[in-house]
Design goal:
Elements (H helix, E strand, L loop, with lengths): L5 E4 L5 H10 L1 E3 L9 H7 L5 E4 L7 H6 L6 E4 L9 H6 L4 E2 L6 H16 L2 H9 L20 E5 L3 H12 L3 E5 L6 H4 L3 E3 L2 H7 L2 E4 L13 H4 L6 E5 L8 H10 L2 E6 L18 E3 L8 H19 L10
Helix pairs in contact: 1-12, 5-7
The structure holds (2R)-2,3-dihydroxypropanoic acid.
């Protein structure tokens, strides 16, 4: 019987996924479950046939060039692949796979949770109770903003954007969106299309970001664009941190130009801009959009399916390049 392929696995995976990994492969696991340095990654990759990486691993051109030839596939446990230099992987003849579709609902649920948490000042409420400084119910205490009847602007109406819109309709929100292309009416479900992101900003009482980080979207939400939004608007980001200009967003939250923000992703993770920690009106989470048991299992099994197909010489189901 052929030797099982050896796979470098840069972080721990859910138990059921690791059980399948142990059964079908020879995994080199990260027992401590901490991020590897570049040097560790390169040294551990020696003798491996493939690699399972995560969005925290910087798989750039120089790392790809130095990977041992034995590593023939890079499989990320994420839908996003902005941490991988695709051109370099392609040039090196190393296919890259990802995990689309399976995290749509989990991420949309968290995005809508952030809409509500930011609007209803959930962080401040928690703080008052946890610091034992609640003096009791008062008519003017922690008055937030209602979402019913408000306009939700969705930037990027792909799978996740559409799923957030669906949840928002249940809260009686009016949906507006901008994307490169207009959706067909059955997918639009009454949402109002805006030809430009700037036009969308103008009507977004709430703005939820669902676009990838690309050279075109880096620092998209800057001071000029924030100035286009209605007074007291709320921004939610579950997409990628670099889409937001942190200094501009923090300034707008500090001045009260924006009422609040709900953020799950940050530029430079895990070293977030320290300004966010000071803001009571920023509800911040550590990149946990897809962190449900159901979804992380599904993502892990999809990684397995991708590797199985590769090592069986079949077409890759979720190939990026
Ligand atoms: C992804 O999959 O790209 C998320 O950011 C992590 O779930």
């Amino acid at each position: 019987m052929a030797e099982k392929p050896t796979i470098l696995v840069t972080r721990r995976l859910p138990d059921d996924v690791e059980a399948r990994l142990d059964r079908d492969y020879l995994p080199k696991k990260n027992a401590e479950d901490r991020p590897y340095s570049r040097e560790e990654l390169l040294s551990l990759a020696q003798g491996c046939d493939g690699m399972i990486c995560t969005p925290t691993d910087k798989i750039d051109a120089s790392l790809i060039a130095e990977l041992p030839d034995s590593v023939r596939i890079i499989s990320t446990i994420s839908v996003g692949f902005d941490h991988i230099d695709l051109e370099a992987a392609k040039a090196a003849g190393r296919p890259v796979t990802h995990t689309p579709n399976v995290l749509t609902d989990a991420t949309a649920e968290l995005a809508f949770f952030l809409v509500l948490a930011a609007a209803r000042r959930a962080y401040e409420g928690q703080k008052i109770l946890r610091t034992d400084s609640w003096s009791g119910w008062a008519p003017t205490q922690l008055m937030g903003l209602q979402v019913s009847g408000k306009r939700l602007g969705v930037l990027g109406m792909g799978r996740i954007g559409q799923a957030v819109a669906k949840k928002a309709r249940g809260f009686d929100m009016e949906i507006h969106y901008a994307d490169q292309f207009r959706l067909p009416p059955e997918k639009e479900e009454g949402a109002v299309y805006h030809e430009t992101p700037e036009a969308l900003l103008g009507v977004s009482d709430f703005l939820t970001l669902h676009c990838p980080a690309t050279p075109d979207t880096i620092k998209f939400l800057n001071a000029e664009r924030i100035a286009l939004m209605p007074e007291n608007a709320i921004v939610v980001n579950t997409a990628r941190g670099p889409v937001v200009d942190d200094d501009a967003l923090i300034a707008a939250l500090k001045s009260g130009r924006l009422a609040a923000a709900g953020l799950d992703v940050f530029q430079g993770e895990p070293n977030i801009h320290p300004g966010y920690r000071e803001l009571d009106n920023a509800y911040i989470l550590p990149h946990m959009g897809s962190a449900t048991i159901e979804t992380r299992n599904a993502m892990g099994f999809m990684v397995m399916d991708n590797l199985d197909a590769f090592f069986a010489g079949k077409d890759l189901p979720n190939r990026v390049v």
